[in-house]
Input
Amino acid sequence: MILVNGIRKRFGAAVALDGMTFEVRPGQVTGFVGPNGAGKSTTMRVILGLDRPDAGQALVEGKPYRELADPMRHLGSLLDAGALQPSRTARNHLLWLAHSQGLGARRVDEVLEQTGLGGVARRRAGGFSLGMRQRLGIAAALLGDPPALMLDEPFNGMDPEGIIWMRGFLRSLAGQGRAVLVSSHLMGELQGTADHVIVVGRGRVIADASVAELLNSASSGRITVRTESPEAPGILAAAGATAAPTGDGGLSITGLPAERIAEVLHRHGVTFSELAAHRATLEDAYLELTRDAVEFRAEGPR
Amino acid sequence: MSILRAEWTKFWTVRGWVLGTVAVAGLIMVFGLAPGMSGSCGKHGPASECKPLIGPAGVEVKDGFTFVHQPLSGDGSVTVRVASLTGEIFAGPGASRPGLAPWAKAGLMVKSGTTPGSTYAAIMVTGSHGVRMQWDFTHDKAGPSGSGPQWLRLSRAGQTVTAAASPDGSAWTEVGSTQLTGLPVTAEVGLFVTSPQYSTEFHEGLLNGSQGGPSLATGTFEQLTAEQGWSGTAWHTDWIGGKPDWSETPETEQEGSAFRVAGSGDVGPTGAGVSATQTLVGTFTALIAAVVLGAVFMSTEYRRGLIRMTLAAGPRRLHVLAAKAAVVGGVTFVCGVVAAAVVVVFGQRVLRANGVALLHTTTLTEVRLMVGTGALLAFSAVLALGLGALLRRSVTAVTVAIVTIVLPYLLAVTVLPVEAARGLLRFTPAAAFALQQAVKQYPQVDDLYAPAVGYFPLSPWAGLAVLAGWTVLVLGAAAVLLRRRDV
Output
């Protein structure tokens, strides 16, 4: 659907994209995650032909975006929800976009209903909250009924209710078989939404994996045990685990699964009041990955 | 096409821009229909109407001179030696000083009759423009340029009148010839002398203008001879067109074939005057609205990153620029044409009803005024659009557009001396105001053909070409940058 291949882009001395390469597949929500300045927005602008890359190319359905006729019928995008003329009504904002793709007013009314903006269609978009503008941006992206969508930080400025709506909406778009690329600088926003995650840092891809794979790799089995026994660290070390006090009377243990820890402690007659296995979150996986990236970068430029 | 439609939708969905469009047309109409000028024609009873004298070409003319003539039939020729031409110039009430108006005239004339405005052809010595052949008021042809005594000859063969000049009376040079349709078999032939209103420009601080008054010319002629079919010596003097401008014009003195003739007035087209251009006086305010519209229609795209959405919807960037230019140019063109049509048609009536003696404008010229006003606004708006694309900031783009397009015109019609004003209106985008010039400027009539009264240094289409050149230049630069830049 969307293919990004070896894109490099400098702004003056600053390297924005350093060989960015990934693919967005249909039928799933692909999260595009990285810290601010990692090159997410620049990548999206290159995909849309707004920025010219120094090297590499981005293809939408096998073609550069600039060569698509009525491009919004192939890729719908939301780069900046604030990019609108404040004095134009929501409906008229969508109307000129529809006209640019050879579409009519009927399609405008459809996407307004779909995004829940039917009631405010004739209000000036300048008076919209950021959350409503995000919905308007989604409506614009949907105008051409495209097989692929690309949304830059669509959760920004949304209230909890809006975030829940957005998640469900993105899932349903992917459920219809569309390719959905969603960027965020907060991995947590994508939990339960994304099927696949592309983690970027400093203009390149750090990880490109399914959510399940990421969680497994990050679930290194950290377990906390709360016990009063001073022998516990020694016993566990002898069994092959590493134990470190957590500071609040607990021990943080790695290297042994929870069942083995319970068995070893039980065998040695050590009593404990709590044994908890921590499931890794996407956030943990993300932090781990980006921390590595930071350490790697600290070696200096290659 | 869909990009053009999208840009049109963009345009009409912003109320401010629609109001701006209304302002473009409205300002022209408000200024053009408000009776901002008044005159005395018809204001002081039944005898005070201004009835302009219309020449054979349909334009207002002056026909006032001293004519020493006799009726002569059929073909023939008349020859004379102009021994001297001297003059006096008005220098305040009751005072005069010696001086010859540059277009003082003394020579030979054949004219269909003594009725002012009737067809004629003449050869003459002038104050400082050498020997000229002139006919039917608007035509002027240069002959030998030397000063000093000159021999002049005028010959008629059917309806063809030929003029010749000679420094010595034996070696003759033909100056020109013309067909005078409507010249009767018996025409009035003879000597004529006249001297036009004399004007000088003055600049005192911010005040510019012209001042002047009547002038008198006196020609001494020798050896006036009718020959080659014409004969007769019964010359008598008439003041064509009523009393001369000079209050005490001396009578003609004759000694055989030698004459001393004094005259004051002019034979030729009317000089500078109020014309249909006056009705378009509000154009510069509409122009401000049009360039703001043009600049902002583009620069707003950059204000909130809307340009990214525009170019994501239409990745062919030059198509987008062209569509925007077409929309803003088309809208301002239509507004300009409609508003100009209204004021040219009705504004002239308002001015005439208000007692202003308005120079006649042909229908073809009126159409050019209407279309030209539309073109002036449209090209300016597109030029401003280009500036908006180059500069990407509304304030900067609007400022530059007004300074380069509107300000030169404003300076030219207000504080600048005429020569500086003409210079400015030759190369700045404001040169296209020449499209609004309604009546011709005649080099053979000295007058203050100032931009302020509707006379521009370039021809209408040359003026438009200057503006179009600027527009193409700026839009071209905008196109190159728009293609190259990341947005």
Q: What stands out?
A: Chain A touches chain B at residues 45, 48-52, 65-68, 70-72, 77, 79-80, 82-89, 92-93, 95-97, 99-102, 140 (CB under 8 Å). Residues 2-209 of chain A form a domain with the Rossmann fold fold (CATH 3.40.50.300). Chain A has two domains: 2-209, 220-277. DSSP finds nine helices and 13 strands in chain A.
